[in-house]
Amino acid sequence: MSGIVIIGGGQAGVQLADSLRSEGYQGPIDLFADEPHLPYQRPPLSKDFITGDDSAEPLPLRAETFFAERGVQFHPGIRVLAIERDQQTVSTSNGRTVPYESLVFATGARNREMTIPGVDLKGIHYLRTLDDAMALQTAMTAARRVVVVGAGFIGLEFAAGARQRGLDVTVLEFAPRPMARVLSPTMSAYFAETHTCNGINMRLGEGVASFTGTDGKLTGAVGTSGTTYPADLVVIGVGVLPNSELAEQTGLDVNNGITVDSCLRTADAHIFALGDCSNYPNTHARTRLRLESVQNATDQARTLAKTLTGKPTAYKNLPWFWSQQGPIKLQIAGIIGADDETILRGTPATGNFSVYCFSGSQLTGVESVNSPADHMAARRILELGLPLMPEQVMDAEFDLKGFSKTTPLPLHEKENLEQPVATP
After folding, report:
1. 108 FRET partner, CA 20 to 30 A, in 180, 227, 347, 423?
2. Does an H or E element contain 48, and which?
3. What is the dihedral of CA 154, 157, 161, 166, to 10 degrees?
4. pTM to 2 decimals?
5. pLDDT tens across 42-89, in order?
């Protein structure tokens, strides 16, 4: 009997299996995962896991009994090697052929790897999987000087954690400001200054040209300026690539992720994609996007479960993200444009403030530092499309929280707001 085959044992795949049962699906569910571990929460790997000692344990996505209790066939360490769309079957690395009624790509993304001289030296790491984090945890016990390549979320979360452990940390970022792809200039400047004040050597506008070593072991990183930064540990965080090769080999459309419609369906009516590997039409950004976040993976899984159980549902959820970098908790709601105008509300010197971003008079996103109330209000305002004007944000006496509650939330967003604030 054919059922639903899910490729990928991360947040999106596990949530989909869970939600399918919650929606009443009673057919077979097969979930294939490349990694041999029980599915675990990935975001803490660059935060609490790094700042803890070497006895820190990964946090599971579900209890060990989840798969048996929900009737899900979990296949750890087994890859799907090929898909026969005409036959509606997949071939796996343990020699099986598994039929499907519906096939779902939840294959996530992988680290973008560098190819510069010296990148194979011992002491150079990436951080994405549990095995990556465990190797780094061990390496940090003997390290003194760390270079982080890339000032994105992962790089800066790791840098802040390493600094908390007392290590000497330098961050090399080719762009002129940190997290430039996702943050406003105002917020980038705050993070650059705060990390510098906390003892991190932020080298902006400085890429890495090569790594140096002795007897195969890392000794430093050479910046694009020619400066050498001594290091016995390097962490590279220069972005990710979607795991979409199998979909492409299968003949599906791929363009920075697997192309899907608003119901997360590919051009093949029996094949879907969600999470970090999918490129979907985002109603809030009014363009196609591929988002890398737990919120997106989780919410898309809940939405797709409805479609797969006979209730076709378009995915319209508001994107939101968060990052913990040492004492700084950053929360972002919405999609911020590169040319948006920004309005500061609050005082960065206090460590609690928000940046409101507008395209003309249209609110597009809000960035909040250590201000969860602002974040929750922003999510309501953006989700509902409330007509918040720039002059209202500029008025320090204007009650944003009260304004956000002037209209009831749609049920799906009310359910989302009631979820614990999770991870990016």
Report:
1. 180
2. helix 48-51
3. 90
4. 0.92
5. 888 888 787 776 666 788 999 989 999 999 999 999 999 999 999 999
